[in-house]
């Protein structure tokens, strides 16, 4: 009958189009699948057949052709920048087991003992509670005439680099606006939803940080705020099994990724404020955040950088969650949106202010606002 | 869980502020409709649905089940609310049929719709406003706020129910069976972000006496491909390159860049919303349903009145028929007519989102419409002097773009920052690379009607390709678009936070 014939024609078109799309975009789709379902997504038999792989390889080759075309064009247009482009393209990330060489690029940190290999192998570290406000390490007090409570300082012409996921996307505009309006400090906001450190195939923060610090020499402070996309098993390479979340191997790998960001900061003499994700509504996610926060805090400590938990800013004193905060007039104001993860504008501003309170601006006059 | 990657890429992922609730949400859902998972599920659904083509009734059962499953996949609470709402609408339909056109029949409809909107969408906004006003008068009052989530699709199925109940009260149609009504309210392609359906048009398609057929299959698939281009390529690129960074921190950009971001947002919101409409229209055609037209080249409009006849058409007609005309329309004199228009546009603004910015946006359009009307008394239409048409289109586009600033900004302060930024425009600044892009944008609007003719011819030509071959260029074209997009598939088929 004509109705079914029409439907069959349409189905034919849908299936052929879908197959073509999957064939050409197989690598992107498998990355997407990895990131979303936290397991390897190879097609059982078809996945290895040369005819199937050809589609993926075609797209790869086209991508390479596009990249080299764009590079070549840029080089011809801006001969002065050649060196820079090349440099940023060949940034080497620390190899997983390399011992980080100790060169204290950051003068004020001299009081501390030289830091060696920052990878602390803790076998299944217990979820460290991170509710208490961070106390300042003694080494930093001697740094400069900083105001009370501040741990880093910025001067005129310095820029701030904002790194993170959608939590940061919420906080970053407030931070950037306040920095610019009050102190005329520029910021570079590259925060991107769905990102973290567990799925570099999807988005590679260590590499992005390396490139950005290379190309933006005025950056003197990096603020990092991420985590909720990471508490999952993570891939360790093609064909290998996924690392189990919280297993010792997972933790070592994750700490190395934190370190590779901190290494870049050290190499470019950039101060770091690492913001620990706050408690979440779902207990499982919340516990995972406390665990990740422990890792961030320990690694930043080893590099004499600065860690601050978002918890105190939202009024959380322990591992409990609340979508509201009691303000000074006794009224409850909403700080979290209904997903139990993200912040309301109020929540974003509270966290932004907490971060700002850690920054000293010697010699800069406050204007407006 | 798809989260809003910022306030308003005309919406996607959890909003950073509550302001652009509507916007945020639309994109959230756009993303889920364009996900790989949805595509695969839809293909399976398509097979089962058409294997039942001998029984429209069974097809309807399947459609209703799929619609409820989709709502439940967002949250079970949303589903319970939709079920409860459908039951209430059914009862009110019976009341309306028994006492058609009576004052209390209409009153009950108004109570249902306003009650739901207030409870689920506007509580915080109104309570906040009233408390603020009382506080400034020295009264510290704490009004109750029930904490409820906005149920998915409420804005649209509430409007669908109004069309249904009013038609019954006007004796244009009898009340529908509970099952047909439930499907009319829950029909998944138009549940999440429209278009706004009319009961007479949709119920007739649900209760069709004949056998359903896939409608215009090639055009349907072409519309879906067009949606991919508009959503992934055009609006995603505009959002990240021209719009989002500037609207977030306007102070860090030059006046020219701020103006460019406003142009960019005007294009973006069109690509985004009309792309979404193309997508659901294509999906509905594949299921044998025709949805009302929603966009018709809005930036080719010569005045605001024409703009609203081309932008979100199904909503404009709804507001006209169910708000403006019941208020009295233009039957009670010029002043009252303009006031009614302003009120209708304010309702439209508030419907888009509960914040002062949306109210300002609505008011700007209301005032703009009144000004246009006043101008027609002075300048006889149509104007015949050379260039008049172009000037009128550019003026209309710029006024609409100006209003979008309020629509997109998260708060009034940010909108003011944007305007202050644009205020610093200088002739020197225009002679720059950004100035060139501004020129390109204006030229684009200028040649838009001619461009449109070409694009439409091209689109029509592709649908004439033989059906056996059609999928190949279609698949290659979509792959090419994905390839040309910034970050490939994972970049936009977002996953989590």
Gross morphology of chain A is globular
Helix content of chain B: over 70%
User: Which CATH architecture of the largest domain in chain A is right?
Assistant: 3-Layer(aba) Sandwich
| CATH superfamily (homologous) name of the largest domain in chain A | SGNH hydrolase
Major pleated sheet of chain A: 5 strands, parallel
Overall shape of chain B: it is globular
Unreliably modeled segments of chain B: 1-31, 488-497
Number of helical runs of chain B?
21
Which ranges of chain A are low-confidence, i.e. pLDDT below 50, for 5 or more consecutive residues? Answer: 80-144
| Quaternary structure of the protein | heterodimer
Q: What is the count of β-strands of chain B?
A: 0
Number of domains of chain B: 2
Mean pLDDT of chain A: 79
According to CATH, the fold-level topology of the largest domain in chain A is Rossmann fold
What is the top-level CATH class of the largest domain in chain A? Alpha Beta
Structure, explained:
Chain B: Pfam families: MBOAT. Chain A has helices at 2-24, 26-37, 50-77, 82-89, 138-141, 166-183, 205-215, 248-267, 283-302, 345-356, and strands at residues 152-153, 159-164, 186-189, 219-225, 271-276, 306-309, 324-326, 332-334, 359-360. Chain A is of the alpha/beta class. Chain A folds into 2 domains: 2-89, no CATH class; 107-360, 3-Layer(aba) Sandwich (Rossmann fold). In chain A, strands 3-2-4-5-6 form a 5-stranded parallel β-sheet, sandwiched between helices. Chain A is globular. By secondary structure, chain B is mainly α. In chain B, 71% of the residues lie in helices and 0% in strands. Chain B has 21 helices and no strands. Chain B starts with 20 loop residues before the first helix and ends in a 5-residue tail after the last helix. Residues 1-31 and 488-497 of chain B have low confidence and may be disordered. Chains A and B meet through helix 1, helix 2, helix 3, helix 6 and strand 3 of A and helix 2, helix 10, helix 20 and helix 21 of B.
């Amino acid at each position: 009958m004509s109705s079914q014939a029409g439907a069959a024609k349409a189905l034919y078109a849908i299936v052929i189009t879908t197959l073509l799309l999957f064939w050409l975009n197989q690598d992107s789709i498998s990355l997407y699948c990895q990131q979303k379902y936290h397991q390897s997504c190879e097609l059982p038999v078809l996945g290895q057949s040369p005819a199937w792989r050809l589609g993926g390889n075609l797209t790869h080759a086209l991508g390479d052709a596009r990249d080299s075309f764009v590079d070549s064009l840029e080089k011809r247009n801006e001969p002065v920048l050649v060196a820079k482009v090349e440099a940023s393209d060949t940034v080497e990330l620390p190899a997983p087991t390399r011992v980080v060489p100790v060169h204290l690029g950051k003068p004020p940190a001299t009081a501390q003992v030289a830091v060696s290999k920052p990878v602390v192998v803790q076998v299944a570290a217990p979820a460290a509670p991170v509710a208490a406000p961070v106390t300042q390490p003694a080494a930093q007090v001697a740094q400069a005439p900083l105001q009370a409570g501040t741990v880093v300082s910025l001067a005129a012409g310095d820029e701030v680099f904002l790194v993170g996921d959608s939590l940061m996307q919420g906080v970053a505009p407030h931070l950037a606006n306040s920095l610019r309006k009050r102190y005329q400090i520029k910021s570079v906001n590259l925060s991107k939803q769905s990102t973290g450190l567990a799925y570099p195939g999807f988005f590679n923060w260590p590499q992005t940080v390396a490139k950005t610090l290379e190309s933006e020499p005025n950056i003197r402070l990096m603020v990092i705020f991420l985590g909720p996309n990471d508490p999952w098993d993570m891939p360790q390479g093609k064909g290998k099994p996924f690392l189990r979340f919280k297993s010792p191997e997972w933790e070592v790998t994750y700490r190395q990724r934190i370190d590779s960001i901190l290494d870049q900061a050290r190499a470019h003499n950039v101060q770091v404020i690492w913001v620990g994700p706050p408690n979440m509504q779902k207990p499982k996610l919340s516990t995972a955040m406390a665990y990740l926060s422990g890792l961030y805090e320990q690694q930043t400590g080893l590099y004499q950088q600065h860690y601050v938990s978002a918890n105190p800013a939202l009024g959380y004193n322990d591992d409990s969650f609340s979508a509201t905060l009691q303000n000074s007039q006794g009224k409850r104001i909403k700080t979290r949106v209904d997903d139990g993860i993200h912040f309301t504008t109020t929540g974003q501003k509270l966290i932004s202010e907490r971060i700002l309170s850690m920054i000293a601006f010697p010699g800069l006059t406050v204007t407006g606002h | 869980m798809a989260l809003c990657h910022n306030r308003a890429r005309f919406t996607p992922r959890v909003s950073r502020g509550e302001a652009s609730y509507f916007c945020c949400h639309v994109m959230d859902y756009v993303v889920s409709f364009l996900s790989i998972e949805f595509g695969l599920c839809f293909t399976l659904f398509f097979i089962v649905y058409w294997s039942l083509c001998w029984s429209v009734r069974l097809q309807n059962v399947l459609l209703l089940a799929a619609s409820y499953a989709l709502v439940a996949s967002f949250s079970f609470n949303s589903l319970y609310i939709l079920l409860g709402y459908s039951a209430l609408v059914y009862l009110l339909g019976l009341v309306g049929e028994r006492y058609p056109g009576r004052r209390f029949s209409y009153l009950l409809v108004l109570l249902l719709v306003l009650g739901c909107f207030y409870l689920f969408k506007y509580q915080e906004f109104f309570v906040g406003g009233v408390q603020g006003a009382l506080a400034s008068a020295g009264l510290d009052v704490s009004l109750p706020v029930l904490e409820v989530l906005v149920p998915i699709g409420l804005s649209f199925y509430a409007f669908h129910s109004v069309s249904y109940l009013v038609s019954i009260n006007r004796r244009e149609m009898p009340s529908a069976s509970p099952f047909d009504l439930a499907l009319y309210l829950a029909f998944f392609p138009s549940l999440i972000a429209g278009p706004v359906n009319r009961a007479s048009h949709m119920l007739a398609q649900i209760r069709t006496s004949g056998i359903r057929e896939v409608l215009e299959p090639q055009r349907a698939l072409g519309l879906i491909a067009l949606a991919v281009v508009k959503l992934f390529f055009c609006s995603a690129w505009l959002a990240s390159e021209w719009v989002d960074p500037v609207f977030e921190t306007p102070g860090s950009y030059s006046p020219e860049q701020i103006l460019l971001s406003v142009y960019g947002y005007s294009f973006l919101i069109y690509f985004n919303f009309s792309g979404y409409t193309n997508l659901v229209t294509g999906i509905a055609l594949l299921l044998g349903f025709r949805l009302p037209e929603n966009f018709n080249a809005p930036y080719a409009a010569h005045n605001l009145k024409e703009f609203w006849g081309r932008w979100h058409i199904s909503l404009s007609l709804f507001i006209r028929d169910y708000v403006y005309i019941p208020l009295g329309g233009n039957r009670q004199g010029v002043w009252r007519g303009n006031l009614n228009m302003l009120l209708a546009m304010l309702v439209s603004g508030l419907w888009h989102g509960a914040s002062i910015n949306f109210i300002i946006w609505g008011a700007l359009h209301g005032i703009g419409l009144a000004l246009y009307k006043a101008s027609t008394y002075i300048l006889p239409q149509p104007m015949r002097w050379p260039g008049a048409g172009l000037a009128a289109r550019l003026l209309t586009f710029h006024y609409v773009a100006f209003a979008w600033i309020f629509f997109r900004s998260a708060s009034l302060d940010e909108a003011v920052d944007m305007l202050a930024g644009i205020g610093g425009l200088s002739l020197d600044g225009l002679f720059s690379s950004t100035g060139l892009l501004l020129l390109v944008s204006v030229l684009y609007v200028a040649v838009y009607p001619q461009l449109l003719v070409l694009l439409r011819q091209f689109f029509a030509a592709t649908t004439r390709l033989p059906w056996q071959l059609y999928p190949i260029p279609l698949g290659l074209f979509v792959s090419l678009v994905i390839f040309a997009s910034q970050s490939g598939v994972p970049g936009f088929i977002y996953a989590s936070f």
